[in-house]
Amino acid sequence: MSTGTPKGPSAPDEKQLYVGQLNTPSTDKVIDAMNGIFDRRFYTNHGPLVAEFEKRIADFLDVKHAICMTNGTVALMVAAKSLGLRGEAVVPAYTFPATAQALSYAGLRPVFCDVDPDRHTISVETVRAAMTDETTAIVPVHLWGRACDIDGLQALGDEAGAALLPDAAHAFGCTYKGRKIGGFGRCEVFSFHATKILNCTEGGCVTTNDDQVAFAVRTARNFHDQETFVDVPLRVNAKMSEAQAAMGLIALDELHTHIARNRERYARYRGQLSDVPGLRFIDHAAGEASNYQYVVFQVEEADFGLTRDQLIARLKDRGIIARRYFYPGLHQAFPYSEDHWTLPVTDRLCDSIVQVPSGDMVTDADIDRVCAAIRSARKDPGGSRPGMDSPGA
Ligand SMILES: *Cc1c(COP(=O)(O)O)cnc(C)c1O
């Protein structure tokens, strides 16, 4: 990587580094699995690989039911619709757009509440402030793989007659009080998008211990279901294909390896940046498992000397594509921005969180390069001498 000579802002031999976060399953295994699909000519409609994948997920998460779908957004949509929810759902605005959009699609009105400044997830306090007589669901997000206060929110939901429906898209393989995420609330929803820890290219899943919820979701995800016929408000084609399940099965076999590598990358970032004033990492909950899929931190301008956006611009000059996350907040984005929301903690996070490159494509040397660029941006906030620091200096 490093030639030892100073490089300009876009030296041609430095690859561009993207946030990506991709974990790639072994290609030869994927090709074998695809050949099996062609041999069987069983491409979709509850083929053997989807059945096996659902069983493996349920076993892994220690839940009764795993119902796979074409992606996480549709899985959340189908779950919300199948639960027969109407009225308002309290959700964070500090999340990926899918969380609120899926609920809107299912006919619910998302009501945004603020998040806890340390955990970045919604809390009993913030949810309570947003609840009305119309609230029928609470949809927390286990952001960055860190569980929300599930017990507190479940108790609040029980008290108000509102269903707890966590968006667990970030949290495959993570735990709450030692139990894997997946069995909490009425049901939980995962995403197996290419950028998530378990990569099916596209994919998603509803998990639950509730037989009735499982039957409803199974029925609703398909127009013709061989398995169950129960009354559901609406049906749709949300099926996972055999090709997606083939990827997922291999990704599940390799999950522990991906988590271990993520943890190493995360530790390398933290080790090199922990003494930099003004950078604040989110602590993972003590004693809980995480998948370490997201390397994010807050940039506090007063101590760091640059705003988050200035830091991102400086990294971009060096071929490092870091990302604002999440920006804008959903309360500031169409269609929800038509209403007025007061969410000061969310606003602060939207303005100060940065996500840096991670995932299988990012090497130790790449991380060293990103960290060196961050340190040099701080030492030289004016950016008057771009290109004078060689990578790793
Ligand atoms: C990725 C993601 C989703 C949506 O999942 P897709 O599989 O991409 O549709 C939902 N919520 C959150 C928080 C996500 O990060």
What are the main properties of this structure?
alpha/beta; single chain; binds pyridoxal-5'-phosphate; disordered N terminus; disordered C terminus; 13% strand; 15 strands; 393 residues; 13 helices; 4-stranded parallel β-sheet; globular; 4-stranded antiparallel β-sheet
Task: Give the N-to-C terminal Cα separation.
Answer: 12 Å
- The structure class reads alpha/beta
Largest sheet composition: 4 strands, parallel
Low-confidence stretches: 1-12, 385-393
Count of β-strands:
15
Give the overall shape, derived from the CA principal axes.
Answer: globular
Topology (SSEs and partners):
Elements: E1 17-18, H1 27-40, H2 48-61, E2 65-69, H3 72-82, E3 88-92, H4 98-105, E4 109-113, H5 124-130, E5 135-138, H6 150-160, E6 163-164, E7 175-176, E8 179-180, E9 188-191, E10 204-208, H7 211-220, H8 242-253, H9 255-273, E11 279-281, E12 296-299, H10 301-304, H11 308-317, E13 320-321, E14 323-324, H12 344-352, E15 353-355, H13 364-379
Parallel strand pairs: 1-13, 3-4, 3-5, 5-6
Antiparallel strand pairs: 2-10, 7-8, 9-10, 11-12, 12-15, 14-15
